[in-house]
Write a structure and sequence with these properties.
This protein is of the alpha+beta class and 378 residues long. It has twelve helices and 15 strands. It folds into four domains: 116 residues, Winged helix-like DNA-binding domain superfamily/Winged helix DNA-binding domain (Arc Repressor Mutant, subunit A, Orthogonal Bundle), CATH 1.10.10; 87 residues, SH3 type barrels (Roll); 49 residues, no CATH class; 62 residues, no CATH class. Helices cover 33% and strands 20% of the residues. Helix 2 packs across helix 3 and helix 4 crosses helix 5. 30% of the residues are buried.
Length: 378
């Protein structure tokens, strides 16, 4: 039987924190945790404090949330339960791979350790679930395959589909209808112009077929490759060093066009106008930074230096953050608070100052500016 008795909420939190970093190396923030769990930022802040008190996470105000050794052990236990149940539902009960996630979410909290180990034995101790995610062993070991997002691979790259994200059941149903499954051989043929679809060739039960994959699909498929192809961007390294194979895991991270525009410090509409795709790999972004195209060089040369293109907004209460284009009417804010919190939750105005509040800052912030009160002449 289960020897510890953490609540199902605690189990869900540590599992989500682990899953977020399993296939990329950026830690999760409180706002990202709230988005994935579908709860308010204030609820996350309260739960993170509880997890920290129980020694399950490390967290400092306005920083990311990371698991401690104890938190990682609990997370791996829950991930093992979830993925073994998914595998059992598919292999023994005839579920399809788009149906099992929600069922496993319910069952993983209810069954005993004995049940889970008997399921594992009945299945022959599988190493991966129906979507290709690795199943931790009973002692917490995880065998991670070396794999990379299909969306970040360049023309000529080939390999086997190793993992398919289960975030979107409709996408899973589409892939099943097209006979695109784990272990299918795939080759990147190129990309349509102006940030268009990724062209690939995939081998299936009925033979080899060519597909134009939208970014949402290409960003859900992970491909393992044993050797690089000539000129492979993944094997170049990002600093001009000799090729490294397999490339670092951090290269698996995909970057949105908006985040790329923030990194390049250009307006989003400029990034779109000059053909930056909706998603790109870190290697592709690094290539632009190291060898800026003419339009980016000209943009930097035209800067007046008086106002930044992007500013960082961070809620003074919960740490929710976003980048935003500054407006001419914005003063120098003392604090900003997100829509989940009231301006009254920030420290009181300092003596000798007056406070003003500004709505409509970023997508969901109120700006607070404390300025010295004007001196009244006697």
């Amino acid at each position: 039987m289960k020897t510890s008795a953490p609540s199902s909420s605690i189990e869900d939190y540590v599992k989500v924190i682990y899953s977020f970093t399993e296939w990329q190396d950026k830690p999760i923030t409180s706002s990202q945790l709230a988005q994935r769990l579908g709860v308010a930022n204030s609820s996350v802040s309260e739960m993170v404090r509880k997890l920290k008190d129980q020694g399950l996470v490390d967290h400092k105000p306005y920083s990311a949330v990371t698991l401690t050794d104890s938190g990682l052990r609990l997370a791996l236990s829950m991930v093992r339960r979830h993925r073994l149940i998914e595998t059992y539902l598919v292999q023994r009960l005839g579920y399809s791979w788009d149906e099992v996630h929600d069922e496993a979410e319910q069952l993983e909290h209810a069954v005993s350790d004995t049940f889970i180990e008997r399921v594992a034995a009945k299945l022959g101790n599988p190493e991966r679930d129906p979507h290709g995610d690795p199943i931790p062993t009973a002692d917490g070991q995880v065998l991670m395959p070396s794999a990379h997002l299909l969306a970040g691979l360049d023309q000529g790259h080939s390999g086997k589909i190793t993992r398919i994200s289960d975030d979107n059941p409709e996408l899973l149903r589409y892939l099943a209808a097209q006979d695109i499954d784990l272990d299918a051989e795939v080759e990147v043929l190129g990309r349509r112009p102006f940030g268009g679809a990724l062209m690939v060739r995939i081998a299936g039960p009925g033979g080899t077929r060519d597909f134009d994959l939208a970014d949402e699909i290409a960003s859900a498929l992970w491909v393992s490759t044993e050797t690089p192809h000539p000129g492979c961007i993944l094997g170049r390294g990002i600093t001009g060093a000799p090729p490294v194979w397999p490339p670092p895991v951090s290269w698996n991270v995909m970057i949105s066009r908006r985040d790329a525009a923030i990194t390049l410090d250009v307006p989003l509409e400029m990034a779109q106008r000059h053909g930056l795709p909706k998603w790109m790999s870190e290697a592709e972004l690094r290539s632009i930074l190291d060898n800026p195209p003419p339009w980016l060089v000209q943009s930097r040369a035209n800067r007046t230096g008086k106002r930044p293109v992007w500013v960082h907004l961070e809620c003074a209460v919960c740490g929710y953050e976003e980048a935003a284009r500054p407006k001419k009417w914005w003063p120098d804010f003392t604090y900003v608070v997100c829509g989940h919190h009231a301006p009254s939750e920030v420290p009181a105005v300092r003596p000798g100052c007056v406070r003003s509040e500004y709505d409509g800052v970023g997508t969901r912030f109120v700006g607070i500016a404390d300025v010295e009160a004007p001196q009244v002449s006697p």
